[in-house]
């Protein structure tokens, strides 16, 4: 519990810091916080030893579930050919070229070289976001990279199992490997879809009865990826593929049940975003912490720099194979080919797979070599595209320009609301209260203004029933005017449309906060 609390606290700190340094990806900031966490013994000593099973099951699995939920199921159907090409064929090609390349160049045994190659095959969609911060990823290349990262983890795991058995037994069983892959992948798809469909039907049946409970439904939704992952792993199929497929099914559910119970869907989406943001930061805090711990290990630092050369070789061969495959099989042009090849960023899953070797009787020197080499691969896969993409990808609108324009729109929006309130006949205390809240919406009130209003709430009795109703109607009128203004301005300011829709959503949520408590109080009075 203490370890979890420390990691989550570090993730929260990194999210706050990222708001200050907005031009730096929160993932890099989380890694730096992770490094700092290790260097502060009073904090780092409370972090438990890394466990790949817990890490993948408790953090990676729900992240992939939510990532799958953000992807439309029919998009996967359209991209099925490309998914097979990138998550299976490309993975096998990378395994062969990287395995033999490392074996020849570094002079290590072929089984160990293939272990290194297998661990280097999975890519990470979460990590890719850190290298495209402030940049526009082309839609086609972005779709390919996203689909690949959703499904290639299972391929990497199966190939790693093959390489590990080869290392331990001295021979490779191709038939068993292919059989295991088919059972694991197909079984993961079938169990993931079946489990998710049963859950969807259960939720949808329950929501249409008088026995539905909002909080219980949300909790059921949150625990779904954890239960499914460990259930799938228990019956020896791919838990990763199972949770991804379950997420895809849940996407279709949310599309068709938005108005069946809008409060439940809205709350579920908010909790999903919160968990995703926190878990993403936790992943990179752990990466930063583990990198530092690996480098600080006395046994590793005393070794030769063979691991550095192997790590660089792993990265170069992977990039070149991806580039050639992108040009020849995926029909990319030169620029798109480099975007696809460099966009295959490695992260949490790669590190977790490296640590699974601790469960086998792998020599300590070989285990350390794998950890250090894969760490170099991860660092290079993050740093190189971060630099290169700055020169080959279009930049998003400057933050200062966007902030200035949205602030202007927000101020004009609130002025529309204030004009509407001032035209209404309202008791002075009600009008002042509504105007203060609207001014706060404009983000022009100070903390001391809030303190003064807080003191008024504490000292004075609450509004009467009639005053509450007048306040609610004043807000409904004011916020309605804001929505009308935003609807109008969104048609003329097309380049800022997404930001304007965010403001529109903010107004709708404010409206629900005004109406919701008033309705609840009215119900309580009736009862």
UniProtKB/TrEMBL annotation:
Gene Ontology CC: plasma membrane
Domain Cation/H+ exchanger transmembrane: 13-392
Keyword Lipoprotein: no
A Pfam family the protein falls into: Na_H_Exchanger
TM regions (residue ranges): 28-47, 54-71, 83-106, 150-169, 181-202, 237-254, 275-295, 307-325, 337-358, 370-393
Classification via InterPro entries: Cation/H_exchanger_CPA1, Cation/H_exchanger_TM
Signal peptide (UniProt feature, chain positions): none
Recorded GO MF terms: potassium:proton antiporter activity; sodium:proton antiporter activity
Subcellular location: Cell membrane
Gene Ontology BP terms: regulation of intracellular pH; sodium ion import across plasma membrane
Principal location listed in the UniProt entry: membrane
Keywords attached to this entry: Cell membrane, Ion transport, Membrane, Sodium, Sodium transport, Transmembrane, Transmembrane helix, Transport
Membrane topology label: Multi-pass membrane protein
Domain of life: Bacteria
Protein name per Swiss-Prot or TrEMBL: Na(+) H(+) antiporter
Source species taxonomy: Bacteria, Bacillati, Bacillota, Bacilli, Lactobacillales
């Amino acid at each position: 519990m203490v370890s979890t609390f420390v990691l989550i606290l570090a993730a929260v700190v990194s999210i706050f810091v990222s708001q200050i340094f907005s031009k730096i990806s929160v993932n890099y900031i989380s890694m730096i916080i992770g490094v700092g966490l290790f260097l502060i013994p009073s904090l780092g000593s409370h972090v438990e030893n890394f466990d790949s099973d817990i890490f993948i099951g408790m953090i990676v699995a729900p992240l992939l579930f939510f990532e799958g939920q953000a992807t439309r199921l029919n998009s996967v159907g359209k991209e099925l050919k490309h998914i097979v090409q990138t998550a299976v064929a490309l993975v096998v090609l990378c395994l062969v070229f990287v395995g033999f390349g490392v074996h020849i160049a570094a002079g290590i045994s072929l089984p160990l070289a293939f272990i290194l190659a297998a661990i280097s095959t999975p890519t990470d969609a979460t990590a890719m976001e850190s290298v495209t911060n402030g940049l526009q990823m082309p839609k086609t290349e972005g779709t390919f990279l996203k689909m690949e990262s959703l499904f290639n983890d299972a391929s990497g795991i199966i190939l790693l199992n093959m390489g590990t058995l080869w290392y331990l037994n001295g021979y490779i069983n191709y038939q068993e490997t292919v059989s295991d892959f088919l059972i694991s992948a197909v079984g993961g798809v079938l169990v993931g879809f079946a489990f998710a469909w049963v859950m969807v039907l259960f939720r949808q049946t329950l929501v249409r009865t008088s026995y539905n409970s909002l909080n219980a439904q949300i909790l059921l939704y949150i625990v779904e990826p954890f239960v499914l992952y460990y259930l799938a792993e228990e019956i020896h199929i791919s838990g990763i593929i199972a949770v991804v497929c379950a997420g895809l099914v849940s996407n279709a559910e949310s599309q068709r049940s938005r108005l069946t119970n809008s409060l439940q869907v809205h709350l579920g989406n908010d909790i999903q975003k919160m968990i995703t943001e926190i878990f993403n930061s936790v992943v990179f805090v752990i990466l930063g912490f583990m990198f530092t711990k690996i480098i600080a290990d006395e046994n590793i630092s005393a070794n030769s720099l063979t691991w550095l050369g192997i790590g660089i070789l792993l990265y170069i061969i992977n990039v070149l194979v991806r580039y050639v495959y992108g040009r020849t099989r995926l029909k990319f042009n030169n620029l798109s080919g480099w975007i696809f090849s460099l966009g295959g960023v490695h992260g949490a899953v790669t590190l977790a797979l490296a640590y699974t070797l601790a469960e086998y009787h792998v020599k300590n020197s070989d285990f350390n070599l794998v950890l250090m080499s894969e760490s170099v691969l991860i660092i290079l896969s993050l740093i190189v595209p971060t630099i290169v993409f700055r020169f080959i990808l279009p930049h998003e609108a400057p933050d200062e320009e966007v902030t200035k324009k949205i602030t202007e729109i927000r101020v004009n929006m609130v002025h529309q609301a204030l004009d509407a309130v001032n035209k209404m006949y309202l008791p002075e205390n009600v009008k002042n209260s509504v105007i203060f809240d609207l001014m706060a919406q404009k983000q022009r009130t100070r903390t001391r203004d809030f303190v003064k209003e807080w003191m008024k709430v504490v000292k004075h009795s609450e509004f009467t029933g009639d005053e509450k109703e007048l306040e609610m109607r004043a807000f409904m009128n004011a916020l309605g005017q804001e929505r009308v203004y935003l609807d109008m301005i969104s048609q003329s300011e097309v380049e800022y449309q997404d930001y304007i829709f965010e403001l529109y959503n903010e107004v709708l949520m404010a409206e629900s906060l005004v109406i919701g408590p008033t309705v609840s109080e009215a119900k309580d009075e009736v009862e």
